[in-house]
Design goal:
By secondary structure, this protein is α/β, with parallel strands linked by helices. The protein contains 15 helices and 18 strands. A hairpin with a 5-residue loop joins strand 6 and strand 7.
Length: 445
């Protein structure tokens, strides 16, 4: 079987690229190893509850925004998007709540109230990151805040962890400016992230694209000249691509699995060894509507540990989901973690179970301590670890999101393209969408 374009992997990046290319008249086949698309962003189902593993906040849906422009091109109705004036609340270790409002003036007042010990420094910091002449790609936020009070550093750090998957010491001014700009508008999608996934699939299929589920790809297939001509599936089938192959695998898995170590140039192998990222530990919970109504916001970023030798990243994110017919609210708690730690137990399953239990106990205690409003009104439904993300999605070490130090890693072949969270330069879902759109543009030039 031959197509113009093969897309390997049905995450947000792969779906976006496939839908755009099919809409532009190309014959596209999307191959997904799972029985459904969406990748690690897809809705998670447990015990008849459905959980949104993302934070439920989206950018780029304003008129003329990245996501709005995407659906203008796709020819399907976009998900209904509602602006969220107060995107989240940051709760410091001392219990002080700091909302993220939508106006800079209000934010300045909140900063001065929350940080009387460094009010001018806090407001100056926010003005500084918004001034392009004050920041460069090489500058890190941590260096500029080295002498600042730890409370303010923790406040910035938990937001950068959540929004950029990088810590205070790792995040550049440019990236921080994208994430922390108080003028940034956030949106809630009706139906959550799954509504976006479903509409991308609908557009792809309406444009004639072929979606093949339960079709794991083994490797690239090469022609006599060493250039990829398609892919080999695990079942022994070969699928050909006459124009392009788009990988929605992680940057590590694209080269480690699709391209193969023997065909990956040494310069790329060296660059990949310098890249690393975070994994996540998640708890899927339910809570009563009455307990949820006591929270200051539907999304909370809480500082849980301010010590330098903290085992995990020092904070957790609580995101409430929708109420269902049982008058219960779903909720997802996310903690960033070092993925390597979870794979050092692969020869000892008992040690891994002990690690999981320790993580559960620690996170459960932190949740009760930092969000006492939930009291005893929460029930644990299921958990997910980096092992879960590896087993379900075959992501190297279960790594989620952008690498710590992201840099462009070129492919060695003119017809191989990469899309997805580990290669997108922008932030969040709209950053992935924009990168996939740019890739589709280059393929169709």
């Amino acid at each position: 079987m031959s197509y113009d374009v093969i897309v390997v992997g049905g995450g947000i990046g792969g779906l976006t690229a496939a839908a755009l290319l099919a809409r532009r008249g190309l014959n596209v086949c999307l191959l997904e190893r799972q029985s459904e698309v969406g990748g690690c962003a897809a809705t998670v189902a447990h015990l008849n509850y459905r959980f949104d593993p993302t934070y439920g906040l989206h950018t780029g849906w304003e008129p003329g925004g990245i996501c709005a422009r995407l659906f203008d091109q796709l020819g399907v109705t976009p998900p209904a998007a509602q602006e969220v004036p107060q995107a989240y609340v940051v709760r410091l270790a001392d219990g002080v709540d700091i909302p993220r409002p939508s106006t800079l003036r209000q934010f300045e007042d909140d900063l001065r109230s929350a940080f009387p010990e460094c009010a001018d420094e806090a407001t100056d910091f926010y003005h500084g990151i918004l001034e392009s002449e004050r920041r460069t790609e090489a500058d890190t936020v941590g260096a500029s805040l080295a002498g600042s009070p730890s409370r303010f550093q923790n406040f910035i750090d938990i937001q950068l962890q959540t929004l950029t998957q990088s810590s205070l010491a790792e995040c550049s001014y440019e990236l921080a400016a994208q994430a922390l700009d108080p003028r940034q508008r956030f949106w809630r999608l009706a139906g959550g992230i799954q509504s976006l996934i479903d509409r991308l699939v609908r557009s792809f299929q309406q444009s004639g694209g072929r979606l093949r589920l339960n079709a794991p790809v083994l490797r690239l297939a090469y022609g006599p000249d060493g250039v990829p001509i398609g892919v080999d599936l695990l079942n022994g089938e070969r699928v050909l691509a006459t124009r392009a192959i788009v990988s929605n695998l992680t940057i590590w898995d694209t080269f480690g699995k699709l391209v193969g170590p023997a065909r990956t140039p040494r310069t790329i192998s060296s660059a990949l060894k310098e890249l690393s990222g975070w994994g996540v530990y998640q708890m899927f919970l339910t809570t009563s509507e009455s307990a949820a109504s006591q929270l200051p916001a539907e999304r909370m970023l809480t500082v849980t540990d301010t010590s330098e030798d903290a085992l995990e990243r020092g904070g957790l994110v609580l995101a409430l989901g929708q109420r269902d017919s049982r008058d219960a609210r779903t909720a997802v708690v996310t903690v960033y973690t070092h993925p390597d730690d979870w794979f050092s137990f692969h020869e000892d399953h008992a040690a891994l179970e002990e690690r999981e239990q320790a993580m559960l106990s620690t996170t459960w205690a932190q949740l009760h301590s930092t969000v006492p409003e939930l009291a005893n009104e929460i029930e644990l439904i299921e958990t997910a670890t980096p092992h879960t993300f590896y087993e379900n999605f075959r992501r190297r070490f279960g790594i989620i999101g952008r690498p710590f130090k992201q840099s462009a890693v070129p492919t060695p072949f003119p017809n191989l393209w990469l899309v997805g969270d580990t290669t997108a330069r922008g932030l969040g879902i709209d950053g992935i969408i924009d990168h996939a759109r740019q890739t589709a543009d280059r393929i169709t030039e």
